[in-house]
Amino acid sequence: ELLATDVSRNLVNLFFLGQDAKKQAGGAKGAKLSKVGVVGAGFMGSGIAIPLVTKAKLPTVLKESNLDVLGKALKKVRDHLAKGVAKKRITPMDAAQQFNLLWPGAEAQDLHHTDLLIEAVPEILDLKHKVFAELEGLVPATAILASNTSTLPITDIAAQAMHPERFVGMH
Predict the structure, then answer these.
(1) Confidence grade of residue 117 (pLDDT, cut at 50, 70, 90)
(2) Which of 131, 138, 154, 163 has the fewest CB atoms found within 10 Å of its own CB?
(3) Per-residue pLDDT, 107
């Protein structure tokens, strides 16, 4: 009785479509990132930087104009790594190498050679426009511009951009 339902047929069809999609994407490789920039080192920005340096092992520029906030972000990353060492998840040398992947900076020029720029400033549309207006021309033309927005439509954030097609939402 359950085998003959529309739901059952659709679930089986969905399974096979998923398998087919995996086969089609099998040889496709995405572009490799060599350097990431995170703009805004508050709660979200520092939280984004942690997996970039610990999991992805990517050189990461953490841009923040408020040096107190930047210092707190560095401490948050260092404490995260220290916790990993204390729990014997990573060695002290690995922790040092991962921490050294982080490049703290207050200047926009530090983001020059990033492949991915992630904006993590407060949810104020005018502020996000200002950030991207300043930074869009600094990063390479192939760089992906991402906003960590959770409440603002990405189309609104990208509306004033030179290249809105480069924008993605990432939360």
Answers:
(1) very high
(2) 163
(3) 86
State the angle between helix axes of 43-54 and 67-86 in degrees (0 to 180), rounded to the nearest 10.
Answer: 40
CA atoms of 61 and 117, how far apart (whole Å): 9
Let me know how long the chain is: 171
Query: Which tokens in the block code for residue 156?
Result: 């609104």
All residues at 6 or more sequence positions from 95 whose CB lies less than 8 Å from its CB, including other chains? 81, 82, 84, 85
Indicate if 163 belongs to the active site.
no
What's the whole-model pTM score?
Answer: 0.80
Residue at token pair 């972000």: 73
| Helix 92-99 / helix 43-54 crossing angle, nearest 10 deg | 120
Contact indicator for 123, 150 with CB cutoff of 8 Å: yes
Phi-psi category of 107—alpha, beta or left, where left has phi over 0 and alpha has psi -120 to 50? beta
State the Cα–Cα distance between residues 128 and 134, nearest whole angstrom.
10
Catalytic residue among 112, 129, 163, 171: 171
SS3 51: helix
**Strand pairing class (36-39; 167-169):** unpaired
The answer to whether residue 91 scores a pLDDT higher than 70 is yes
